[in-house]
Structures are given as C-alpha cells and as structure tokens.
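User: Teach me something about this protein's shape.
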Amino acid sequence: MAHSDNSLRSVTPPSHRIRDASRGTAFDGLDEDLSEVENSRSALRQVMRNLQTELAEKNQVIEEQQDTIQQLQSDVQGLKKTAIKRRKRATAVPVNESEQLLELAAKKFTVMNHFYIADPNAFLKVPLSQTWTDRSRFDSQQNQDEGSVRELDELLSDDLKEQRIRSADCWAAVFEQAQQDERHSMTHRIRTSNTTAVFGSEIAAELEARHRSRSTLLQQRLGFNTESGSYERVPPILRANPDEPASKSNMLNSLVVKRVIQAMLMGPASLGKNQDPDVSLSAKCNGKIWSVTSVTPGIIAFAAILIRYALSPDNEFGPTGQTSGISYLEDFEYYKKCLLVGQRKKVRQVLDLFDNLNGALFPHHKASWRDRRDNQSSSAAEDDELFREIAEAVSEEEGEEEDCRMERTNVLSPAVRAESSLSTDQMPSDMLVDGSDKMTTEPLSRNGEEETEKQVEGGGDVARGGDRPKRGGTTGKRGAPKPKRGTGKKKGI
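Assistant: First, the predicted structure itself:
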C-alpha cells in the first residue's frame, strides 16, 4: 500500500537521535556507540595479548622441564654404560674348583668380616707370624692386615690356606670380583628392597635418588650439620636413643641395624614374616649358604655403613662418598675396631649388643654364640693390669663424662681426608680402652683415641690435629699428679 508524503513525514526518530540544536545533528549518538564498541574491542585485544603472553611463559617452562628430563635421562644412560663397562673390566670367572671355593669364601668374608680390600694381591700374600695376637692386632697396619687375613683363613679349607700365598696372583682377580659383586648385591638390597620394613614408611618415601640429596629428614637421621657440612660418625639412625649422644651403650644398637643385618643374611622378605628368622631361613639365603649362627663385628660394622649409604646422597658405593664425602671405609674400620676390642676386653655394653642381636636373629643357636662370646676375651694378667691402669686414668673424670659428646666427622677435601685417616697405632676410642665395667657413661671420641692416656704421656691428637676438645687436667683423684706409665710408650690393646 502506498504511503503519502504526509505519512512519511510523521515518522519520529528515536528520542536519543532527536535533533538538538545544542548537540548538532539528529545522528550524533551513533558516534558514541561506535566509541564504546571500539573500547570493548581494545579491551578484548589486551586480554588476548595477556593470555598469549601467559601461554608463552608456560610453554617456556615446559620446554625447560623437558630439557631437564632429557638431561637426566642422558645422565642415567651414561651411568648405566659406565657401570656396565666397570663390571666388564673387573669380571673374573673362577676356572677351577679352588677358585670357586675362594669366590664363595670371599663373598662371605665381604659381608661378615671386611667389605673392601684395596689391594687383593698384596692382601692374599700376607704371611702369618708366630708373634701375632689379638691384643697386638691394632699395633701396626701390618698386624691389622694379618688380622683380616686370619679371618679369611678361617673360611678356607686347609688346602686353600696352603695355596693362598703362592696362588695370590691368580686368585686376586677372583677375590676382587667376588667382593665387588657382594657389595653391589648388599647396597641394592638395602636401598631398594622392602625399604618400608627396614627403615619405616617415613624414611622409605625419601630414598629415591631425586629426594635423597634434598631430604631434611635423611640429613637429620644422618646427623648432618649444614653449617660445617659434616656428618656425625655415629649418627642418630645408628643409635637406640637417637636424642642421646653416642656412647658405649648407645651406638650400633638401633632397631634399623638389626633389620639390615637380617636383610643381609636372611633376605629382605624375612622382615615380613612372623617367626624366628633363623627358623625361616630359605636354602638360597646367605645365612643358610654360609651356615651363619651368630653375628660378627664385621657384619655389624658393614650394616651400619650400608645404612648411612642408603640414606646419603651418594649414587655409588666406595671407600668415600663422592657426594657426601663420608669416609665409609675409615668409619667401618672404626666401628669394627670398637667391637673387636670391646669383645676382647669384655666391655659389658659391647657384649650386650652382641647378645641382643644374636638373641633376636639366632635364638635357636644360643649355645653356639654364647660359647663363642665366652671364648673371645683373653684372661692374661697383663690384660687385667692394663684394665686397672686405664680405669685409674679416666675414673676421676667421670663427672665430665655425662656432658662429653660425640664429635662430628668433618667433610674435607680428599687430600685432607687422606691426612686425617685412621692411624694404625691410634687407640680406637674410650669405649675400646676402658674395658672395666666401672666406666659406663663415657661417650665415644671422634677419632677413636684414648685421650687421657695420650695426655699422660705428653702427646696430643697426633692423628687428626687439634679438632677435638681436650680434657682439662692430668691430676689424680686427690689432686696429686698422675704418674707416667712405663717408659711413655703406648701399650698395645
């Protein structure tokens, strides 16, 4: 239908577009709408730019993490190749019955007596002297080596004992390989197998390689001092009372030590069984193969070292931790020395340690390990006299002994650690030389020396410098000067 001109003129524009002389034309409102739209578009573009920037930053983080993962994978592959190469270079397969028997003895020797012999060839050639005794074992390095060789000979048949020196050149590689294989087996078993049963769930959750180096829990259990970068020689993880300082009655006696020894001899699976360990021995476990009926100083010391390694940031096990700097071999020898001399001197706390471990692990072989314990100590008059001298030398200082604490092992450079290694003629610790049952509270010193005896003889801490606190005074119980013993030479243990 057609519209007239008058009808067209009657159409009224929107109120906001009505002509206003003060604002201009009737369509000025369109400019304002366009301005609002443009502002909205600008705000939207800014949001998009912000989202793109944030996305780019996240992509960069992802790329960096991927690079880190690739680097770690590359490092792992490199370590695997290195480990394979090392094992191939050291592989020595027994070629006859004598070498097979030697290999079996060497594996048992590694676990029960000494985990690392640096020079197997020289070690196997060590002759036995007629003058060697348990009491003189730590008088010299040669006597120490002979003591270890005698332990190996106890595991060999008479025929192999006679062949040992003349066959050393042929046997050295087999002996070294057997020790290496057993060390690898033990470290893998303790660090990765049934760790919850061994260490508890809290520690087990931190034993992965990516956690160990940063875990404050593991550092605390290892007695790590962040200020000095040092580890305690007898850390809380090895003490039955971790909040108390290390002493004769509070070292190597934690429940973890017992569990690790059980895992070493009876397998980690035995920890989950509700029966006596020696009854549940399978035919394939070390304890059954080696006919073990009691613990030895060597296996207790080795278990302590394995515990410290398992919690440490180190990825390879050797005489010294590559990352931690812990002196595994030196501290092993210190532990073993404490236990050997404590057994010989019949130090009550040491005998209790052996009784507790044997009672828990070998309750059905009590007669065997009781007889062995009773035969450990010498009853010679000179030993009894030495006991009395040592008791007199330290008994007047009993008031200070409660406050004396274990020194921490300084993590030094390899050169310095070499200089501060355990001296062959050094006394093991107050625990070793105070065989009298009167002394029950004296804590262990850092380097295992009997401090009072050295002060009486006018000597300092010759093996380790002056990093250990000295005890004050050398007077007797009533203030009189202590007489020097003999000619001033230190008596053998």
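Now, about its shape. The chain is about 50% helix and 0% strand. The radius of gyration is 36 Å. If you'd like, I can walk through any region in more detail.
User: That's plenty for now, thanks!
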